Amino acid sequence: MIESRCGLLCSQCGYREQMDCPGCVHMSKPFWGENCPVKSCCEGKEHRHCGECASFPCDLLRQFAYDEKQGDDGKRIEQCKCWSAEVSAV
Ligand code: SF4
Ligand code: SF4
After folding, report:
1. What CA–CA distances, in Å, run from 54 to 1, 18, 37, 49?
2. Most CB within 10 Å of its CB: which of 1, 5, 24, 55?
């Protein structure tokens, strides 16, 4: 089951309760801004998550994943790969 467009695990996110956030795939806009460029891009291409994209992992996604403050050292990119592998194993 995918939890976000970029590979973040919303179920493990501390903001979920704090900000009453329904999670990336269930919200129309993020609580932290007008839009998320990754979410907008991914949904615009009608992918379920970035791992389905031909450009994966693109510069934008890498920028988010390796951001010094908000990034997770590429973990979300690995998570997208896991979601892609789960689908192809079915
Ligand atoms: S960073 Fe963007 S794509 Fe990733 S979970 Fe948050 S809103 Fe979704
Ligand atoms: S990998 Fe990059 S180009 Fe592809 S959907 Fe995600 S943000 Fe958009």
Report:
1. 21, 35, 17, 11
2. 5
